[in-house]
Amino acid sequence: MKKEVFLEFDHVSKQYKDFLAVNDLSFKVYEGDIFGFLGPNGAGKSTSIRMTLSLIKPTSGNITLLGKNIVNEREETLAQVGALIEKPDFYPYLTAQKNLEILGKISGVGNLTAKIDEVLELVGLTERRESKVKTYSQGMKQRLGIAQTLLHDPKLIILDEPANGLDPQGQVDMRELIVRINKERGITVIISSHILNEVEQICNRMVIINKGKSMVEGNVSELLTGSRMKVSYVTDDNQRTLELLANSDFKQFVTGIEKEKLTLLIEHENIPELNNFLSNEGVKVYSIEPIRSLEEYFISMTK
Amino acid sequence: MIKLIQIELYKIFRKPRTYIGFGAIAFIVIVVNLGFLFEGEQLLGFLLDSLKDKFLLSGNLINAYTMTFVILNSLWIHLPILISITAGDMISGEANNGTFRLLLTRPISRSKLLAAKFFSAWIYTVLLLLFMISLSLIIGYLMFGVGDLIVIKSTISILSSDDTLWRFGYATLYGILSMTTVTSLSFLLSSLSENSIGPIVGTFAIIVGLTIVSTLGYALIGPAIPYLFTTYLPSWDLFFTMEFDVAKLTHAIYVNLAYTIAFITFTFYYFKNKDILS
Description:
The complex is a heterodimer.
Chain A: E1 5-16, E2 19-30, E3 34-38, H1 45-52, E4 60-65, E5 68-69, H2 74-78, E6 81-84, H3 96-106, H4 112-123, H5 138-150, E7 156-160, H6 168-185, E8 188-193, H7 196-202, E9 205-210, E10 213-219, H8 220-225, E11 228-235, H9 238-246, E12 254-258, E13 261-267, H10 271-280, E14 285-291, H11 294-302
Parallel strand pairs in A: 3-8, 3-9, 6-7, 7-8
Antiparallel strand pairs in A: 1-2, 1-4, 4-5, 9-10, 11-13, 11-14, 12-13
Chain B: H1 2-14, H2 18-48, H3 64-75, H4 79-87, H5 92-97, H6 99-104, H7 110-144, E1 149-152, E2 156-159, H8 165-192, H9 197-216, H10 218-221, H11 246-272
Antiparallel strand pairs in B: 1-2
């Protein structure tokens, strides 16, 4: 069954005085996706997201959100979209409950009290609902940020760097929450991030942008499987292993020893073969760890 | 729209800074009244010394009306600062807090949001003005009772006590108009700024700057002075003469209206097309 296009960027550009923030960007997000909008800091992600929500006007190109032109039909479109842009900023002198009441009233949410109960329960903030937001930790603010996106039963939510400022456990909780929202409520999710690992874990599709331009768009698993990934090995004798590899067919993959770990840039499908080789040579492998940064992915992709 | 105004008013009155204006006015009104209670005869003697040779002054000259008139004179320059603390924060405060992102990603038009914010700031301005005048009258009445009001300008007007209260009513209405101009100026500066200090300082700087230039630079900008809104900030006292200067009053009203409309129009145009980067 063909899925509906929820968001389409069609040759969109944004020019500030002397700076081209977004350059002829085109991509599509489909219904049901958890879509990763990936790029290094300054790539144009936030500008693109702000254009999607009509906070910024594009210089050229068209943005179609839920089948409507966001510039011409802003209010009708935003009634079906929830968004958390950059930091989760609320009125710090008001409680979480009051903040949500204000946002719910502006959005025209019916049966607001029950809806607030529901979203606070979902993000685990029911017990702190009467606390002023200024007493909240960063993680709690992020969760409240997610809660406000769900108040008006949107079809699509847009989360800009939702794991920013969270500790590792907070990041795991955030990822689980996003997946739950997508699976249990059928809400399409767009996540912008500069961390490939984050996108890899929860997104089914992604676009990577750099300097405002789309570099690659597609299915996450397909895009990442075909690429070289950086892997670190810890063996009983890294120096000997390095010499063994340097004299083998695997020498092209070796990048060196970093922080007492042997590192290789290797295709996913070549890893089992490498393990066999090391095992046959009597090398004891204590750990294999993939290291995949966005920057490295860019490099491998452009090679 | 009413729902939006209610929300904006709720936010205004949940901020501690909102009460700075009311607190400052209450403090000044009480201190000035106490000052006159203890040193009033001396102060009045100094003010009316030049008239004693020509007039026979008797009765309760320090009264609620005199006190309100004195306080209005002393507060007219301070009121714009107190107004700008709230009006100047209406847009820039949201930008500074990052809450504009929350509001403007909701299904609501920028124009409606801006209109709700302006009306809320205007309601605050009206409340502040009414608070100032009513508190002055009430405290003045409780301390001194009522009596005739002597107004010394280019002419001397002695207004009997039963011919005064309605003048304060009209002065209040004019005050609302002139302070609406100040509110709209502050609102405009707020739309241009990403922090609250700029609009507050900007409003004060423009008012004081234009007042000084009007006074000292008469030769330079003389022809423009009748068209500056600052020229008519103290024009509420036109109601405290035996005969009204209707032409001057009408001109003052037109100038205030023209500036208010210009400030608001520019704010709406600018904000509607503004990229929200905060």
